[in-house]
Amino acid sequence: MAAPSRDFTAPTLQLLTPDGELRPTPEAEAYLPLVEALSDETLEQFYRDMLISRRVDVTGANLQRQGQLALWVPSHGQEAAQVGSGRASRPQDHIFPSYREHVVGMIRGLDPVKIMNLLRGVTLGGWDPAENGNFHLYTLVLASQTLHATGYAMGLQFDGDTATGDPDTDAAVLVYFGDGSTSQGDASEALVFASSYRTPQVFFVQNNQWAISVPVSRQSRSPISLRGGGFGMPGIRIDGNDVLVSYAVTRQALEEARAGDGPSFIEAVTYRMGAHTTADDPTKYRTDDEVEYWRQRDPITRYRAWLEARGASAAFFEEAEAEATDVAADVRARLLDATAPPRSAIFEHVYSEPHPLVEAQAAWLEAYENSFEGEGQ
Amino acid sequence: MSVETVPSATATTGTDATADAVRGVQTLSMAKAINAGLREALLADPKVLLMGEDIGPLGGVFRVTEGLHAEFGDKRVLDTPLAESGIVGTAIGLAMRGYRPVVEIQFDGFIFPAFDQITTQLARVHLRSEGTVPMPVVIRVPYGGHIGSIEHHQESPEAYFAHTPGLRVVSPSSPHDAYWMIQEAIASNDPVLFFEPKSRYWPKGPVDQDHPGTPLHASRVVRRGTDATLVGHGAMVATLLQAADIAAGEGRSLEVVDLRSLSPIDYGPIVDSVQRTGRLIVAQEAYGSVSVGSEVAATVAERAFYSLEAPVLRVSAFDTPFPPAALETEYLPSADRVLEAVDRALAY
Ligand SMILES: Cc1ncc(C[n+]2csc(CCOP(=O)(O)OP(=O)(O)O)c2C)c(N)n1
Ligand SMILES: [Mg+2]
């Protein structure tokens, strides 16, 4: 009797080679028309998004070193995965991020200062999704947001706000999580619920090779994308450093979701170039060679090469540089203005309706702090 | 009126009709009363959804949702995949979308797979969103012992949730309270853990469907007395009333307070009672250490110190896992164990 195969492989879809040539892999060919339909303006927008977010990322890391942020969570290296998928969403879609999706947030119109305030210790959430491009709050308990996203997508279905046949109003949900997070039970439960209810939803895993210091091989013996099929939905593995394939595959999956064809699972193979957070020391667990390997596959360099070959002007790249520098400086200046919230924020919004214990404690703290007024001057 | 009677569909076609219809007092079991309350909520607000395991055609393992799937269909009464974290996590997403999910956890001991979603997510969404995203989610939990069941089916895990800021925790002790409290819990914009004492599902009592009576988070004196105050919640209230009956036969007058709400706790009636009786015994089916009873004891000691003639005493389950059901009557506080504590308090 032949032993069952223990060989698990999945093709990695790519449109743009690391050298910046548009040369689709066989499985990616069908996606080419989605890219060909994009205007020059949109294609340039992708570049600007990536460049600006990388500058903001450097600003975040610097602010942390200067003691202005408790922590920074770098997105360096993951720009293509995030810009492509984020730009594939439509305004009516809902995005459920983990905590590294600054790039997607900015695309959806979220001010990065709001993200920084979270990492500065000034807020716990900090924005109203309804007023920030339906970009929901960051979630620090790994994979818990996958279930919120699925529930939200169930709600879209129950409301009849999807699958009506009108792509301009039909909504879908895009949820982000990491390779490490795929091991959480919640991720599997979300896939079960999504598949069971055929939710209008795309699961987008950024496999950046590491969960802090633990390599992805500890999380999965097979390509993570294969999980999709196990739960009853397409699972697609893409080159996450190729902004074009990230855009096209997510776009297609979201359109299918909106049309009522059910959820999809995308694994974007990318790399976290920086530390896990500024509190981390990646030299303890990974080699310079590995980092160098991925530096050769940088998402921005490759995309720039392609844009240049297509004839984008030198002036465009200069303007993009200037814009990125301006945005980063502006973010920095405004962050430094952010002040601590009043102490009443400890108590506000814990409940939406009166709660005598919390109210009594708020009153007590106020009286206690006031009792020191005029002392020690 | 028949025990089986629930308000008829024709009498209650919407919020307005519900408000005006006079339905009088019916005699219902707590299970039927909750069923009727859920039905009212489903009728009153199309955003109310029921979610859980086996709550559809079967009507739940305790039949609390019986008939609701047939009446409201599977867009309102959802037999979900078998995953508690998944149920609560998706309920959170639905609440973000404007729904008011009412989740049934099949048994007390199976709430723990959802513990993370309840405590780190559900309890905090409103706070983290700075008040922009309310979380009107109710989690119904059949709980407690005295049903002779197997492991993980007789637990009293309410303290974990009462300990968690952002959650509200209530537990009715009578069919009337259950009928109204479930509706008030669903109407609340905060997450509410709704602990249903399993051993009280079947005894019948009057349910006045026109007059709610006590507000959701108020405690209430359910029996007047002068010698000592007994406080408890859920199934324990019946045990305390039984103890008070026995004591009355022995010439002792015990006051009984039904906590009803475990977060927040309404101390007014308790402190008032202790100021009159000078003695307090707190009873519960849960483990005693770091429990709701501990909290009541500590707070009353702070607020009514000069009224106390004796230390506040606690009567709880032992601090051991729930034993095999054959031992549950020795494990759980009984009227006799309550009276033993009363004797000790009165000996001071
Ligand atoms: C439930 C839970 N366990 C542990 C942590 C601590 N933690 C934060 S990030 C992280 C690694 C996550 O890796 P991955 O999902 O791959 O995302 P990445 O950080 O690589 O983007 C860990 C262990 C957490 N936030 N939540
Ligand atoms: Mg990772």
From TrEMBL, chain A:
* Residue ranges constituting the Dehydrogenase E1 component domain according to the UniProt record: 48-340
Q: Which CDD domains match?
A: TPP_E1_PDC_ADC_BCADC (cd02000)
Organism superkingdom? Bacteria
Q: Does the keyword Oxidoreductase apply?
A: yes
Q: What is its EC number?
A: 1.2.4.4
Keyword list (alphabetical) reads: Oxidoreductase, Thiamine pyrophosphate
Q: Where is this region: Disordered?
A: 1-22
Q: Which cofactor does it need?
A: thiamine diphosphate
- SUPFAM superfamilies in UniProt: Thiamin diphosphate-binding fold (THDP-binding) (SSF52518)
Q: Which reaction does it catalyse?
A: N(6)-[(R)-lipoyl]-L-lysyl-[protein] + 3-methyl-2-oxobutanoate + H(+) = N(6)-[(R)-S(8)-2-methylpropanoyldihydrolipoyl]-L-lysyl-[protein] + CO2
Q: Name the GO terms of the biological process aspect.
A: branched-chain amino acid catabolic process
GO MF annotation list: branched-chain 2-oxo acid dehydrogenase activity; magnesium ion binding
This molecule's function is given as: The branched-chain alpha-keto dehydrogenase complex catalyzes the overall conversion of alpha-keto acids to acyl-CoA and CO(2). It contains multiple copies of three enzymatic components: branched-chain alpha-keto acid decarboxylase (E1), lipoamide acyltransferase (E2) and lipoamide dehydrogenase (E3).
Stored PANTHER family: 2-OXOISOVALERATE DEHYDROGENASE SUBUNIT ALPHA, MITOCHONDRIAL
Similarity remark: Belongs to the BCKDHA family.
What is this protein's name?
A: 2-oxoisovalerate dehydrogenase subunit alpha
Q: Which species does this protein come from? A: Agromyces tardus
